[in-house]
Design brief:
The chain contains ten helices and 37 strands. It is of the alpha+beta class. The protein binds pyrroloquinoline quinone.
Length: 683
């Protein structure tokens, strides 16, 4: 039956209905606990859980969307910001909206052309588009109602995050701090698309007012934390708000997470050595006006891509005087500390390491990290954990308010940081001031990739924020696993990179169920109830930062695959179609050439320009082409045509003529071929 209304959602409905029968906002509820009150699927019944339906998202790029479910309709996004409306009971397609992005913008996306989902309000669907647009669609038809450009499109801004809506305002941030932008959060009128306020996270280079909501915050506290020189003055300083945005309906404030510095290396960004507010901070502003309320900086003077954009969860916890309840914000940002801070004041309550780390020995009484000096890297590489992919990334964390446990999709992905001595301030391409070729051998046989893979770890941690320690832990044997769903059925759901979708006993961590998704299970799962049946749903696929920038992290058993929505119910008997394993001819496509010096130079150019998408050591996970097996490596003109002339720009592989000379491109070709020969099986 046709719903009577499509997405007739307002703030009151999100407050009362979401996290029960419906899933009306990215994090499940405004508090973003990703905890559902539904109990039909429970420890007792879960043995019967099977696939109800699947829907093909027709992309081999990363899928990170949490579906929104309202009035019987599921709204879900895929790569390139495409929006799908599906019948939530059957998976039947209602409409598809493609914002028709010029794919050459893909090169601005540090971490794949992903999208984490939509927001719904008053009959409209809101999507942030990878090229910087914010758009409103008619919930019933998918017709575009308004579109507004939220960024300066001459700069490498992108949008991957889900908008949030409260009281008629749509909130959206952006990404781009690896390439050089100035971050901010904006609020738009949900009806008209007019901008209402904007909060910059980094001062403007003259430290003058912008005429925006953030002005007072910089005058009061921010400006003094920045020097007058350094790459930030031309490159924007970073501080992108690319993921977590939380509406706190108790205090009518927006609490959001701010990203890393641009460039990463503070010695280049701001040689004066300041804390650089509001990089790597959690910030609260008034929801109506955007006016500053408080902030807590997790990583002062960020030097390592330690974003504080990871999930922020609000909850009431007995952490006050004598066990009194306090409303808190919790976050497990990239830097490896789990923080509990007061949601009303931003006051630091506690912070403890949730993963091993070697950049800080702990926190002082104000929550400031006690740094290990060598971690502020110079010429000598410092092998550090967490690395830039973090102890926890965008994979949503969940919280069970009955058990007071936070479920962290944690990981260990170390990285050697060293100063990039060739650094020049130029807001184009990846430009971090850190040398990705440091410590990497110019020619790396497969054993090196295997050795690197063996250093990666991942685990699901049930973190007790009152006891400040893990209650239980499940080791996964691989990094980059999925977001988490908690339910009142006493369950915790999580997907894995390897395709396993599992449910654990929320109190003990015992695995009670699992199903093979036949694709990566990275997204945050959701749950909803229609006509007396509870469904659990997850979007699956490949891609994202890890698949592009850490191809060696995948082993041969991982299929290259097409994204899907996979929805489960008790008694479901549908099948997930088998993925294809495309036949790739893993042989070199040309004669090896170049002496050791040329290949070593090629390794450096590759690390700086190519590795973030095609994989370090030229080992790709298969989302983007593995250049070792690419036909163009056999021919100088063909290679130059792509790398310098931009012959494949329409696919997203734009010209690198601004970064590389034709001679330098030729050193890359020599390096890639050398890697191809090094990977051939011994005769
Ligand atoms: N995105 C992913 C992903 O979707 O897999 C992982 C990351 C991003 C990161 O680890 C980042 O550091 C990151 N940084 C920015 C930024 O600094 O602006 C943006 C994004 C993004 O928008 O996806 C990521």
């Amino acid at each position: 039956a046709e719903p009577e209304a499509f997405a007739a959602v307002d703030t009151a409905r999100i407050e009362t209905a979401s996290g029960g029968d419906e899933w009306l906002t990215y994090g499940g509820t405004y508090d973003e606990q990703r905890h559902s009150t539904l109990t039909q699927i429970s420890k007792e019944t879960i043995g019967d859980l099977g696939v109800a339906w699947t829907y093909d998202l027709a992309t081999n790029r990363g899928v990170e969307s949490t579906p929104i479910v309202v009035d019987g309709v599921m709204y879900v996004t895929s790569a390139w910001s495409i929006v799908y409306a599906l019948d939530a009971k059957t998976g039947e397609e209602l409409w598809v909206y493609d914002p028709a992005v010029d794919k050459s913008v893909g090169v601005n996306a540090c971490c794949d052309v992903v999208n984490r989902g939509v927001a719904v309000y008053d009959g409209k669907i809101y999507v942030g588009v990878i090229d910087g647009r914010l758009e409103a669609l008619d919930a019933k038809t998918g017709e575009r109602l308004w579109s507004t450009v939220t960024v300066d499109q001459s700069k490498p801004y992108t949008i991957t995050g889900a908008p949030r809506v409260a009281n008629g305002k749509v909130l959206i941030g952006n990404g781009g701090a690896e390439l050089g932008v100035r971050g901010y959060l904006s609020a738009y009128d949900a009806e008209t698309g007019d901008r209402i306020w904007r909060f910059y996270t980094v001062p403007n280079p003259e430290k003058q007012p912008d005429g925006e909501a953030s002005d007072a915050a910089f005058e009061k506290i921010g400006n003094v934390s920045w020097g007058d020189e350094g790459a930030w003055v031309t490159d924007g300083g970073g501080g992108t708000v690319w993921d977590s945005i939380v509406y706190d309906d108790v205090k009518d404030q927006i609490i959001f997470g701010v990203g890393n510095g641009s460039p990463w290396n503070r010695a280049y960004r701001d040689p004066s050595g300041g804390d650089n507010l509001f990089l790597s901070s959690i910030v609260a502003v008034d929801a109506e006006t955007g006016e500053y309320k408080w902030h807590f900086q997790t990583t002062p003077g960020d030097n390592w891509d330690y974003t504080a954009t990871q999930s922020i969860i609000l909850a009431d916890l007995p952490v006050g005087e004598g066990g009194a309840t306090r409303r808190v914000a919790m976050q497990a940002p990239k830097n490896g500390f789990f923080y509990v801070i007061d949601a009303e004041t931003g006051e630091f309550i506690s912070g403890d390491a949730y993963v091993p780390m070697n950049w800080a020995t702990g926190l002082d009484e104000n929550g400031r990290p006690i740094e290990i000096a060598d971690a502020r890297y110079g010429d000598t590489p410092y092998l550090q954990t967490p690395g830039p992919l973090g102890g926890h990334n965008w994979h949503p964390m969940a919280f069970n308010p009955d058990l007071n446990l936070a479920y962290i999709p944690a990981q260990e992905i170390p990285q050697a940081y060293a100063r990039d001595n060739r650094f020049e301030s130029e807001p184009v391409g990846w430009n971090t001031g850190a040398d990705f070729s440091a410590g990497v051998p110019p020619i790396a046989p497969p054993e090196v990739a295997k050795m690197l893979r063996s250093t990666l770890k991942g685990r699901l941690i049930a973190w007790d924020p009152v006891a400040r320690a893990p209650r239980w832990t499940v080791e996964h044997g691989n990094a980059w696993n999925g977001g988490v769903l908690s339910t009142a059925g006493g369950l915790v759901f999580q997907g894995k990179l390897t395709g396993e979708f599992a449910a654990y006993d929320a109190a003990t961590g015992d695995k009670v169920w699992s199903h093979d998704l036949k694709a990566g299970g990275a997204s945050g799962p959701g749950t909803y109830m229609i006509d007396g049946t509870q469904y659990v749903t997850i979007t699956t696929g490949w891609g994202s930062a890890f698949a592009l920038a850490a191809g060696f992290g995948y082993d041969e058993t991982v299929p290259s695959t097409v994204g899907k929505v996979v929805t489960f119910k008790l008694g479901g008997t549908a099948e997930i179609a088998d993925p294809d394993f495309p036949m790739i001819d893993k042989t070199p496509k040309g004669e090896a050439f170049g002496d050791d010096a040329m290949i070593a130079e090629g390794a450096v150019h590759f690390a700086r320009n190519c590795a973030v998408c095609h994989g370090p050591l030229a080992v790709s996970s298969g989302v983007l082409p593995d250049l070792r097996w690419s036909a163009i490596t056999g021919n100088q003109d063909a290679f130059r045509g792509v790398v310098i002339d931009g012959n494949l720009a329409a696919n997203g592989m734009v010209s690198f003529a601004d970064e590389l000379t034709p001679e330098q491109a030729e050193t890359i070709r020599a390096y890639v071929l050398a890697q191809a020969y090094a990977a051939q099986p011994a005769e």
